[in-house]
Specification:
single chain; 99 residues; mainly alpha; 2 strands; 6% strand
């Protein structure tokens, strides 16, 4: 790592992002779905497995003290970053419409 502890911070951030995904709404047929059960079901059907695999690999790298073996997974992480940023855009739109 470039900065000591940055791996731990990144792992913590992405671990919390998994928890956030259980309460983060999504759009279905143009309507914002916010019911917790439906949000969780959608998350389990779509991004849960890739997210949990990436975070597990990140934590493994932290505990082993290396990230070199995990480089192929960084592409998947960039997709997760894009998904997160897209979600923030939807939250901003929702907050502007409801306020």
């Amino acid at each position: 790592d470039v900065f000591p502890g940055s791996g731990l911070i990144a792992c913590s951030f992405w671990s919390l992002a998994i928890l956030r995904s259980f309460v983060y709404g999504y759009y279905h047929n143009g309507e914002l779905e916010l019911r917790p059960r439906r949000v969780a079901q959608q998350y389990f059907r779509t991004w849960f497995v890739p997210d949990i695999l990436l975070v597990a690999a990140d934590w493994l790298g932290v505990f082993l003290g290396t990230t070199k073996t995990l480089r192929p997974l960084r592409f998947l992480r960039s997709l997760d970053v894009l998904r997160t940023l897209k979600g923030y855009k939807h939250v901003d739109i929702f907050m502007n419409q409801s306020g």
